[in-house]
Structures are given as C-alpha cells and as structure tokens.
Amino acid sequence: MIESIGVFALIGIITGILTGITGASGVIIVVPSMTFLGYSFHIAVGTSLFIDVITTASVVYIYTKGKKIEWRIGLILGGGALIGAQIGAHVALFISDTPLEIIFTVVALIMAEQSFQRAKKGLKIRHRDISHPNYLGFLISLPIGIMTGTLGTSGGIMFIAVMMLLYSLDAKTMVGTATLSMFVSALSGTAVYFIINDIDLIGGIIIGLVSLVSGLYFAKRALGMKDKTIYYFLGTVFIIVALLETIKIVSNI
C-alpha cells in the first residue's frame, strides 16, 4: 500500500508539472502510467479525467490571478466539449482497450510534431477576421469533447489550436483559457465514468491532490517562461509517452 502511495505521488508530481507549464491534460502521463500498473484502459481514462478536474482547478486559479484567462472564450469552448465528452464516454464503453491505445499513441505523435513546429516557428499573433468565431469554436469543441470521453484527453492542446485559429491571444492567455475549457470538459467526462464505476477513487485522489500542489507551483513558474521553452518541453513529453505506449502495445500482441 505504501509503495502504491509513493508511485501515485510521483505520477501526481509529474502530472502537475505538465499541466502547470503547458496547460496540457494530465492524460499523457496518467493513462500510460496506470495501464503499466495493470489498470484497464477504461479505468485509466476515467481516473485521468477525475485527476484533471482537481489539477486544472488549481491551474485556473493561478492563471486567473495572473489575468491570463479569457473566461467567455474558455466557457464557450468548454461548453461544446462538455456535450462531446458525454457522447465520447458512452461510445468508449463499446470499444476494447487496444484500438483506443493505438489512437492515443497516434494523437500523441501528432501533438509532438505540432509542439516542435510551434517552438521553431514561434507564434505570430495577428487579428483574425473570422465571422462568428464563438459559434465556430463551440462546434469545433464538440469533437474535442468526444476525444475527452473516449481517450481521456481533456483537450488542452487542442483548445489552444482552436484559439490559434479563431482568436488573437498570446501564448500564456491561451494556456490559461485552454485550462478552463479542460476543466469543464474533464468534469463532464468524469461524471459518466463515475456513474459506471470506472474510476479508481483512491489513486485518483492521491494523484490529484499531489498534482494540484505541483500544478500550482509550476503554473507560477510558467508565467515567467518563454513560449519556446514551453513548446519544446511539451513536444518532448509527447514523444516519450508515444514510445512507451508503442512498446506496451507491441508487447501485448
């Protein structure tokens, strides 16, 4: 039991670092870690979403204090994802673990490539002349929510991509706003997995509380980081996770 608490605490620290610095969902750490510990993919996803609710709450608090959240945009995107998460969580019940793990790995690789591209090219902020960006944002967030329900990806990076397309925001404001949208999305998905008893509450609470403290600390540090550093860090994490998941999938064949 003591060993398990230690492992969960370590996962929580790493999860908090990731979410606090990048605004990314803890799923990229929690799901691979829990599946390696012997949990089913579905329980790992449900627990990851539960942890995201705890962790993102602390990060939203820090970015709110730093005045780096656009609440209207965050809630609009989160609202679309909330509906999508309900759909995705119900769909996931009918899909076995392996196909979901393969999709998860592919998404991680795509996100790694996008992160490195942003680190190299930088983020050019310019006025977006798009009609009804809020309506488009809501609609685009629906499939992000579906991925939340099926893969546990609360959509931090994807919300950032949507904001890059539709709005003119600096990188730190996008991270803060994306974290708010993640909170809403994760809360929706968590509700479904809780009802069907696919959440390890003890592990989730330990990881969540530790990641909350870790997330608070590193969110403060992130406010002073260069955007380039944040993107390189995120891309590296995605690559490592994709490699570990690939090894696990191959070993199970």
From TrEMBL:
It is found in: Cell membrane; Membrane. It is a multi-pass membrane protein. It holds the Pfam family TauE. Keywords: Cell membrane, Membrane, Transmembrane, Transmembrane helix. One of its GO terms (cellular component) is plasma membrane. It comes from the Archaea. InterPro entries: TM_pro_TauE-like, TSUP/Inactive_protease-like. Its main location: membrane. The chain crosses the membrane at residues 7-31, 43-63, 75-94, 100-116, 136-169, 175-196, 201-218, 230-250. Belongs to the 4-toluene sulfonate uptake permease (TSUP) (TC 2.A.102) family. This is Probable membrane transporter protein.
